[in-house]
Automatic annotation (TrEMBL):
This is Diaminopimelate decarboxylase. Keywords: Amino-acid biosynthesis, Decarboxylase, Lyase, Lysine biosynthesis, Pyridoxal phosphate. It is an enzyme of class 4 (lyase). Residues 35-281 form the Orn/DAP/Arg decarboxylase 2 N-terminal domain. Gene3D superfamilies: Alanine racemase (3.20.20.10), Lyase, Ornithine Decarboxylase, Chain A, domain 1 (2.40.37.10). Pfam families: Orn_Arg_deC_N.
Amino acid sequence: MRFFDYLDGTLCAEAVPLAKIAAAVGTPVHVYSHATLEHHFKVMKAAFGDLPVHICYAVKANSNRAVIATMAALGAGADTVSEGEIRRALHAGIAPQGIVFAGVGKTDQELRFAIETKVRQINIESMSELERISTIAAELGQVQDVCIRVNPDVGAGGHAKITTGKASNKFGVSQDLAEKLYGLADQMPGVRPVGLSVHIGSQIIDLAPMELAYQKLADCVVRLRTRGLDVFRLDLGGGLAATYDENGIGPDLAAYGTMVRKLVGHLDVELEIEPGRLIAANAGVLVSRVIVTKENGGKSFLVVDAAMNDLIRPALYEAYHQLLPIQQARPDAALTPIDVVGPVCETGDTFAEERLMPPIQSGELLAFMSTGAYGFAMASTYNSRPLAAEVMVSGDRWQVVRPRQSYEDMFGTEILPDWL
Ligand code: LLP
């Protein structure tokens, strides 16, 4: 379903023209569609049918509280990887019992905060982490539910930088060690092992690697139970791809649901999944204005007012984002190749090379599509560019959900040392 489309020749978010938002708020601006977020959650849920699945939205994809609150209202939990994300999830209305705390390097302070908060579960990534959690929880007189994160030695995902499931990656522990830790955890005073978790990568279209990983997880469950250990929860991670290009190629969610049912449905475990991108990517666009067009070395450039600090995915992962003019091009408009770049002083600040585009003039508006996940969430103020504004649309309503950063907010808290 498309919630960003042309109405009367102008690109809209649901029923709101993006040009109207740009005129009121300025550019660059990230615009999110509430209906798309809801739609993706429901499609994901439906893929599992009657399987008991707790959907923990991966907050890292888009951590604006309006987005998390949209998920909370649908009954989602949260997958978090820092104290900041736990705090955001709580602020946005997700109950502690819905929050999973994951991540390869959790500090003692973060662990203490999570345990005191009584989060649903902490996913363990090493022996020392398990010991630290048990010690802190016991000090607090609590028992923390934990899952052991298995590294199944299965690679997957759209780019080497986002593959997490190979043995050589920093994430999780081997199956053998996971089973050993499970037994040890069972004897520790401050923890209760409840299950296993896995996450092998992101932007996964082909389900085969996930199937392999889940099979390994299921095998672990059987072995642990044979040893008399109780295992009643599996966290299947996130990673399902969003469609970024015009061809609309993405994972088959119905097939995913069927695969999960086949592999772990008979184990009588509660399930968790942690989708981020699938929920948020196509629920957002980044609207930018063309500053100038120029020719250089035989090439044509479109310099826009968004940059790698607003959307780093193309620079970091060679990611593709569809680019649409806000004013719909005439169907017979000639397309010419053009490099679309931002103003940051790096050649890496390139969004698209030789992209076929209709004629576009300075001052016109463009939308980078599918930027709702890992767009604003990865933004910085590099080149002292303020963080862009964020807006959420619902039907014909829209509201700023985070104003553009002021210069005062950007550097007003910096302190000059006494000797200057
Ligand atoms: N669970 C865990 C343990 C994760 O590490 C991640 C993502 C997710 C869930 C959510 O994955 P998703 O469903 O969104 O694929 N910045 C990169 C993506 C990094 C993903 C990191 N981990 C990008 O823009 O492509």
